[in-house]
């Protein structure tokens, strides 16, 4: 903002920033919460980089990241551990934002990529490549991306009836997820022992062994899609008010819904291709962010930073909380997310929404 900007207060929640030709409504509490979540995610990343067989103090990690570490520290931080952390941050942010989009479009807290089958679709694509084609890791990632996109297209098409209703989208997604779970089980029965072992490790969802080959493709997808999604935040907020209200406010409902769902499907598929199906982050992150911001809107950025913070924290716990045994991060998020899902179902039932 230049010196000509004007700041006007509206109520107690936000401010409106205006310059010539540009007006931006800023929710102060949402911005502060989003900034704090980003700080938490980055702080946990520094702690996680310093964790391992060769522990490093946070000051050493920061000094090495700034280019002032020893040769050994530079190798450990920048070559071994930093790519894993970046994949975790990007996967968490992508899943958090995708979950916020789907929950806003469906107007249902259960409307996350986990529940409507996108993770299972990506798993089906990856298992097809592993079991039937014996593909390499790059081909597995491409298979996961293709499986997620095809599943998203199928769910949207099956849910379409003069528009996509939120509950119909969730129900079609649950059915699709159940069918894909059966397909994935069948593919595992067709695999020989080495391929079955490789497939089970991939399905668990893990950041182990992730390097720069997973960082750059996912970073490019996020760099392209995240600004575009943020540019549609106002229209997404209008969609939460209902199709009729959105039409009345000038939103092209179906085109906006299709564009945002496509972006969410690509974000989910790309994240799954990089780390495997990491369960429940997309379901939990938007709801936790919304409770912190106390906002009725989609809270896209806080949901993204919450997803990033959750995933790197879960990865740290998976490495440190079980002694010598290290769990795949997807196993830990699955256990915690399952408990959250039960709590959410009970809460929604008591509120009469399901």
TrEMBL record:
Report if keyword Transit peptide is assigned: no
Name any one Pfam family assigned in the record: FecCD
Kindly indicate whether the keyword Phosphoprotein belongs to this entry. Answer: no
Please give the InterPro entries that the UniProt record associates with this protein: ABC_BtuC-like, ABC_transptr_permease_BtuC
Which keywords belong to this entry? Answer: Cell membrane, Membrane, Transmembrane, Transmembrane helix, Transport
Q: Where does the source fall among the domains of life? A: Bacteria
User: Which chain regions cross the lipid bilayer?
Assistant: 28-49, 85-103, 115-134, 140-159, 166-188, 212-231, 258-280, 327-346
- Give the subcellular location: Cell membrane
Q: Topology in the membrane?
A: Multi-pass membrane protein
Q: Which family does it belong to?
A: Belongs to the binding-protein-dependent transport system permease family. FecCD subfamily.
This one is known as Iron chelate uptake ABC transporter family permease subunit
Q: To which species is this protein native?
A: Streptomyces yatensis
């Amino acid at each position: 903002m230049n010196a000509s900007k004007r700041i006007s207060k509206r109520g107690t929640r936000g401010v409106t920033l205006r310059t010539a030709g540009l007006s931006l409504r800023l929710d102060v509490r949402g911005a502060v919460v989003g900034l704090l979540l980003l700080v938490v995610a980055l702080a946990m990343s520094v702690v996680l980089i310093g964790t391992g067989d060769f522990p490093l103090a946070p000051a050493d990690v920061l000094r090495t990241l700034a280019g002032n570490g020893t040769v050994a520290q530079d190798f450990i931080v920048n070559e071994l551990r930093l790519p894993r952390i970046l994949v975790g941050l990007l996967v968490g942010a992508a899943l958090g934002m995708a979950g916020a989009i789907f929950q806003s479009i469906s107007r249902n807290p259960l409307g996350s990529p986990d529940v409507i089958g996108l993770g299972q679709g990506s798993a089906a694509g990856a298992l097809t490549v592993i079991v039937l084609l014996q593909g390499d890791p790059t081909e597995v990632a491409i298979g996961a991306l293709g499986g997620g996109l095809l599943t998203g297209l199928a769910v949207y098409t099956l849910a379409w009836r003069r528009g996509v209703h939120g509950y119909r989208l969730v129900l079609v997604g649950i059915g699709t997820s159940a069918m894909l779970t059966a397909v994935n089980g069948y593919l595992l029965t067709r695999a020989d022992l080495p391929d079955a072992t490789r497939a089970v490790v991939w399905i668990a969802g893990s950041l182990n062994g992730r390097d720069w080959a997973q960082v750059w493709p996912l970073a490019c997808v996020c760099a392209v899609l995240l600004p575009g999604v943020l540019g549609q935040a106002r229209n997404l907020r209008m969609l939460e008010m209902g199709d009729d209200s959105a039409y009345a406010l000038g939103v092209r409902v179906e085109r906006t819904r299709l564009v945002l769902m496509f972006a969410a499907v690509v974000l989910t598929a790309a994240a799954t291709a990089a780390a495997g199906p990491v369960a429940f982050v997309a379901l939990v992150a938007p709801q936790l962010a919304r409770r912190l911001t106390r906002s009725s809107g989609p809270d896209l950025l806080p949901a993204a930073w919450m997803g990033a913070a959750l995933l790197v924290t879960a990865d740290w716990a998976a490495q440190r909380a079980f002694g010598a045994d290290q769990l795949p991060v997807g196993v830990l998020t699955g256990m915690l997310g399952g408990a959250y899902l039960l709590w959410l179902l009970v809460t929604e039932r008591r509120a009469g929404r399901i």
